[in-house]
Amino acid sequence: MDVLKKMGKEAMTKVTGTELEKKIAEACSNKPWGASTTMLSEIAQSTYDYQEYPVVMAQMWKRVHESAKNWRVVYKALTLLEYLLRNGSERSVEDARDHLYQIRTLCDFQFTEPGSGVDQGINVREKARHVIDLLNDRERLREEREKARANRGKFGGVSSQKMQGFGSGASAAGGGGGGGG
């Protein structure tokens, strides 16, 4: 019976996605409001996990490359990327640098709202420029990451100790397990 439950759960996950994938989809939805800081923080925390990191980045890049009519999804994916640059693993910063060309192409993003004629592409263009500026200014990015790390301990939600580990350099949290032989 457990085998059937497991198979059912796996089939459901393939259809609806994992909890992490659902969270990223919600954070980058086409809805007119943004993702909560708590949600962004949970996604950023996932970049420190060896198995979840590639899921976060793949899902985010998929949304960055959405069509122009889904400009809100692209904008929110860039907002998530910007949050990851400050709060995600160091590996997510390296990954963003590897995708700098794709981000640069968004500086020419075009979408005008049919009917109203409102240029919604400007939101994506400005966010892309902001992300590029942050990636190109290594000193500012380092300062922003340090500030974010310091603030994580001050506010509720995600502790700075939970953010240690994969991609974070030396662990201030102390290691796990002991050195017994």
From TrEMBL:
Molecular functions (GO terms): clathrin binding; phospholipid binding
**Region Disordered: start and end of each range?**
145-181
* InterPro entries noted in UniProt: ENTH, ENTH_VHS
Indicate the segments forming the ENTH domain, all copies.
12-145
Taxonomic source organism: Coccolithus braarudii
Q: Which PROSITE patterns match?
A: ENTH (PS50942)
Gene Ontology terms: cellular component: clathrin vesicle coat; endosome; plasma membrane
The biological processes this protein is annotated with in GO are: endocytosis
Q: Which Gene3D superfamilies match?
A: 1.25.40.90
What is the official name of this protein in its record? ENTH domain-containing protein
Which stretches are tagged as biased composition: Gly residues? 166-181
First and last residue of the signal peptide? none
